[in-house]
Specification:
This protein is α/β, with parallel strands linked by helices. The protein has seven helices and eight strands, in the order E-E-E-H-H-E-H-E-H-E-H-H-E-E-H. Helix 4 links the parallel strand 5 and strand 6. The protein binds farnesyl diphosphate.
């Protein structure tokens, strides 16, 4: 064991050799956070976007390989148009910044979801960020936008079935996974949902088969680096058996 394999935190001790490779977060509670302060819901989303920036920086410093966040679901179009527009504007602003900073900060960026319904400006920015990824070796941040787990699986199943017919091979999980938005990304080890809700809400349904789940009452805009430490320390105490039995 190396000298620096533990990091002391206010929340306890992080074992730096047992970090989750992939952390995913459902950024929930922005609306309630704003309401508690008498602010419009959009202010909650702006605060949530700031927390995403901070947590992404922290994950990258810790050495986490993948951070995936749920920013906008296929169901979120049902929200009032001013709220949808505000979230899209925050996303666009983030992409502009990412183009400037991603190489310096060594963070790759990938957008997961059906981008066809996004504005041409946002789609162009997504392409610009994607073009920079090849030169970046650090953490990959995945932002799920217009993302829904069921539609992702359905879309992948259709494409994989077409592959199977073409090749004459029997359809298997690997063939389907190639067509998921997350193709090439390991399944999340840890999924965090703040705000007290305890459900997946159509997030990474295929990929979460063996993910460890962590729930906290903190609203996303109040989520801190210490809260992430707590989630990881809790994760590190779990025994992951993947349907097998505990090793002696
Ligand atoms: C869920 O909270 C949050 C969302 C639907 C939007 C999350 C979006 C952002 C944080 C901004 C996106 C920008 C970037 C940079 C990725 P809620 O509104 O459902 O909260 P509530 O349950 O308290 O109402």
């Amino acid at each position: 064991m190396g000298l620096f394999n533990k990091k002391s935190t206010q929340a306890g001790r992080l074992d730096m050799e047992k970090l989750p490779r992939h952390v995913a977060v459902i950024m929930d509670g922005n609306g309630r956070w704003a309401k508690k302060r008498g602010l419009p819901r959009t202010a909650g989303h702006a605060a949530g976007a700031e927390v995403f920036r901070r947590i992404a920086t922290y994950c990258s410093k810790l050495g986490i390989e993948y951070l995936t966040v749920y920013a906008f679901s296929t169901e979120n179009w049902k929200r009032p148009s001013d709220e949808v527009e505000a979230i899209m504007a925050l996303f666009e602003k983030y992409l502009h910044e990412a183009i400037e900073k991603m190489e310096k900060e060594n963070v790759r960026l990938r957008v997961l979801g059906d981008t066809s319904r996004l504005s041409p400006e946002i789609r162009a920015l997504i392409e610009e960020t994607a073009a920079k990824n090849d030169r970046i070796t650090g953490m990959q941040a995945n932002i799920c936008i217009n993302y829904g787990g069921r539609s992702e699986i359905l879309r992948a199943a259709k494409a994989a079935a077409a592959d199977a017919i073409r090749s004459g091979l029997e359809l298997d999980c690997e063939m389907l996974e190639k067509h998921l938005y997350t193709s090439g990304i390991p399944d999340p080890d840890l999924i965090i949902r703040p705000s007290g809700e305890k459900r997946l809400s159509n997030f990474l349904l295929w990929q979460s088969a063996y993910s460890e789940l962590y729930f906290t009452d903190a609203l996303w805009p109040d989520f801190t680096e210490r809260e992430l430490d707590r989630a990881i320390i809790d994760y590190q105490s779990r025994s992951r058996r993947y349907g097998g039995i505990q090793k002696p």
